[in-house]
Amino acid sequence: MSHTLPILVVGAGFAGATVARELADHGIPVKLIERRPHIGGNAFDETDAHGLQVHRYGPHIFHTNAGRIFRHLSRFTDWRPYEHRVLAEVDGQLLPIPINRTTINRLYGLDLDEAGVAAHLESVRVPVEHPRTSEEVVLGSVGHDLCEKFFRGYTRKQWGLDLSELAAGVAARIPTRSNDDDRYFTDTHQAMPAAGYTEMFRRMLDHPLICVELGVDYLAGRSLHPARHVVYTGPIDAFFDYCHGPLPYRSLRFEHEHLAGTRQYQPVGTVNYPNTHDYTRITEFKHLTGQQAAGTSIVREYPQAEGEPYYPVPRPANEALYRRYREMADARDDVSFVGRLAEYRYYNMDQAVGAALATAGHLIQRFTGQGHET
Ligand code: FAD
Ligand code: UDP
Question: Among 154, 157, 283, 304, which is best to mutate for testing ligand 2, by the most ligand atoms less than 8 A from CB?
Answer without folding.
Answer: 154
